[in-house]
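Sequence in, structure out.
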Amino acid sequence: MEVLQLLVSGLSQGCVYGLIALGLVLIYKATEMVNFAQGEVMMLGAYIAFTFINVLEWGFVPGFLATVLIMAAVGMLLERVLLRPMIGEPPFAVLMLTIGLGFVLRGVAGAAWGSQPKDLDVPFAGDVLRFGDLMLGTENLAIIVGTAALCGALYCFFRFARVGIAMQAASQNQLAAFYAGIPVKRIFALVWALFRGHRDDRRRPRGAGVSHRPAHGVHRDQGVRRRHRGRLRQPPRRDRGRAARGRGRTVRRTLPAARIRRPQRIRDPARDADHPAGGHLRDAAEEEGMRFVLKTRYNQDIDLFQHNGQRFWYVLLAVALLLVPLGFDSFYVGEMSLVFIYAIAGVGLMLLVGYTGQVSLGHAAFLAIGAYAHAWFLTQGLPWPVSLALASLLTAIVGAVVAIPALRMTGIYLAVATLAFSRIVEHVITHWGSVTGGYRGMAVPRAEVFSVSLMSASTFYYVCLAFLAASLVAALNLLRSPSGRAMIAVRDSEVSAQAMGIDLARTKTLAFFLSAGFTGLAGGLFAHKIGYLAPDAFTIVTSIQLLLMVVVGGLGSMHGVVFGAIFIGLLPQAVAFLRDASPPAIAEIPGLEPAIFGLILILFLVYEPLGIYGRWVKIRLYFQEFPLYRKATYKRQKSYLRTERVR
């Protein structure tokens, strides 16, 4: 009898998790989006039900129905405001958006209902049905019966209802469903809400995920005539008999005056043969804010510096960084050291995510391996440089081992696999007490080289700066090599890369190896920064922070690594300052910092997916081409449907 009672209790708990999984499956099958905020959405529904039932005293049934309606509206709102603009973006961006959404919802719940547990008044809670010696809880039976009824209703909905059949069609082939006349965007909204009456759209759908409005900057006379679908409109002015003059005016309008060079402004190749120009032209165009690089050598495509202006600004930046410890307090110097450590870890993650296209949610595990290995090697008496090198090498080897089973996975499956690896490493750290100290933690020995301490704020600052500079130069040189170009080819299209003869397994393994090595190096420095290692310093939140760093900084750019590291390193201090300057009602909100992290992540993904560096490039380009800059010229292209991509 006890076994049967436990079976019923476990079955009811499984029904709850099954309903959550059902929502995940419905969203993924219909929209190819994995909602990592599903648990937070369930939490929000529970708090809303508590408000209606306990606070407003509506009763269980009215409160339950009101909660369902409100959560359906919330689902539709989230799909329309956040997820629909992400159609066509890489799956990694959508994944990060849902993670940020989870942080925001958790912060909203903490601000609205606090962090204390709440008791929900359920009419049949605690009631027991007796069948002889068998006692079954009414609450468990209600959950089982309700789940079975809901599954039956969903089966009938997908089997017989027109909307359900349309949702199945959209999940199987979005492009074919669109051509069959199914409003795919509305299906997406319905999947997120699961509550909306079907409306017959008699208008011809114009595209799934494609804007119905013409792009800004495109001439309205171009395209297909509405009344004469068989022929294209002529270019502007040609249909008026002024083709030549129209073409001339078009060229004059689109060709910047600064691009028309006078003969005396062009360098003479023979004159500069002994002193090559190095690909740089300095003339009136440069004075107007525009720079044109005349390439005279093949190596100019892979040079670290494209022109002398870059050399000047980077040298100036290096001098400024070297002078920081002389003009700032030790606290700020220490915070800059932490920024450098984050940037080194960001270099490793950028090689994997930004340049190879492999999603990782478990990079905190590599950071932990590097930190604990370095601390353990130091306790064994190894010199500091040798210990740091061995810790980085060990972490890189572990990364290569992780890459072996990950070679068969892509996208969300790879992300989940790396997340599972992070959990495994966290479990090993907490239970391998003889090496890591378990829950007690592990003290990190002081960093010394030839009996010279490296732990002063300024000395450690210079050490971290040197390692960051070396890491950036090594990564940039790697990207200029054939292996680095192979990584970029794999990121852009695995099918095309394989057709060109690139070994996918070798390239992905190398990416994991190098990424883990750089992160392990950052972990060794991070161990000295915090001074005492504990398992709670390397959780999934740390992995999310690293991903947030490369996304906010700008994917596919080493400049973005530095910008993102500055953002991640200084944001906690900004939040602490905000708490101190805010009223107690705001300062005491639990989970305020993760909520701000998530909100910033969402804003960047929706409004500036290219990150801080991408925004800087746009601003610089605007001033370079002003007043001839046109936003539509640099509009990013998207791949809207999975049927448009070769699998």
